[in-house]
């Protein structure tokens, strides 16, 4: 307790030290990240973005190239489509050799010993500069428009839009993992061609979904076909894509080529005179109101962006960096730098309609450079485009609570708000009671993934349960997003009134469903102590056919309690408050057991089999903080960490593995330092915050997210009274400057 008190007493001094390190009176300024040589391929790209758009930027063989991706570009199969590849081939007008590097007598402005590519983290943009040219690439945070500003001493060249969707493409079996059909081979399944329409100084490129999509196939499979017209469907007739505008270039024809094992067609635009300055715009958008409406939206974006300055977006990034930061020196410098670079990547989808996906976000690159077994198009990523695996998504978003990025958290919470009616429909249809059921492998339209639901289901199998060894009865992750909302309200006074129906119905489901389930199996709806009988349950995807799994019990207790607090403060009606207080009383205790004479948290009271490598017995530590530093229960959790054989077998730091978080929340400083250093060390690609593929894909965002959480937990926790504990698991020898919420 003396140690905890000392840490609490240091709070004022730490806050002062943060203020003392500010630069030039502008607050915290993250360092730029640069390299001084060109890249070998797209795996050596650098992220850039803003608002809802992400770019992968690199220079290869004298050509500046970038991929563009916008949140929400789902095709008819729920693949998340890229908005193409862009190539700038610029030549030094003052240096024309008889045979340049490109074999055409011209010398690329980027072939220079002064080459420098920089991510300007504080300002949110990427520059590529030599002694001949400076190219600034930035994305408008408030409008979905990419700006490429070029200044030089005199250049000519070509701008190309490159598309692999110039033709219909059959989807091969392993390639199916990019869409919602996942692991099966669907005869005749294809990605249909885009509409690509060049004109004098630009090109339209967009994808138009038809009326029939994977949404329809999924609803029919899950006995909800008759409800389709009344069910949220974000992909039917969706038009997504954009317009490239390059006013100082003229259309000069098409070409064909191959990049990274994928054929493509290019639409090329060439300068008609020597330039010293030009701007290229790419506007991206989507709509379900048809092509004409789509083009009107795009034209309005272009018209409003021609005179847009970068200052407004840069000011947003400046404010973003003042919300929070972590910067260490010495041996922790690299991991806090990578923390910052990853947070930048999250900021690039601050205002996207759809959450940042765990399996690559907006920054995937050619899959052959991730794994040679996947020689597919740049649209490919494992684990789908429109499927939002909840256990993985949560790790992308928990860190935003302590980083103060509440506006970014809304994107994930809105995802659940939109599909709440579908989740309630499932419950009424399948079980006939109240509440909302959100599955683990959940689609952007709110139903279970068509492949994971199970195609060879017994005729008498419960229609509401995935016929899947990993996913059966795995339903409780939604409670983590409920917890995020309630914590954001408590910590940052975030208005969460829009999400309270989702929180209430999520809690109600577990209360009503397990009483309904008990009535099916026996005479009584509660156990002998008046508690819910949570069976069949699931200890994450690992401890199956579980009775009172620790993760579900802790989640229900914490969320229902915080919901009652919220409802009381906000003067909800007394009957509603009374009901949820009753739920709190019906939640069973967190299961425990004895190992070597010591009390530990159990994964569940009992379970039938082990199916994965997750640790639900430590979920009461994180995310639920029922055990931890400053709590009387800490020793039980430490015993679990040290003695539980499954913890010894499964704890790790790869991808979504969370040993680094658990160690921090248990106050185990040395282990937390070791594990978080391993988690946040440079990834295998040129940009150090591109981790993966791990269990998922590259860049693995739940790898970065779990690292982000672990570092935060080393620095800031709360005790039983709600008081902040600073540096509960931070090594004294690591000098750190931080601000968290």
From TrEMBL:
SUPFAM superfamilies: Six-hairpin glycosidases
Highest rank taxon of the organism: Bacteria
Keyword Phosphoprotein applies: no
Coiled-coil parts of chain: none
Keyword Signal assigned: yes
BP-aspect Gene Ontology terms: carbohydrate metabolic process
Signal peptide: 1-22
Classification via InterPro entries: 6-hairpin_glycosidase_sf, 6hp_glycosidase-like_sf, DUF5703_N, EF_Hand_1_Ca_BS
Domain DUF5703 per the UniProt entry, residue ranges: 35-326
Keywords: Signal
PROSITE patterns with a match to the protein in the record: EF_HAND_1
Protein name, per record: DUF5703 domain-containing protein
Protein's organism: Prevotella lacticifex
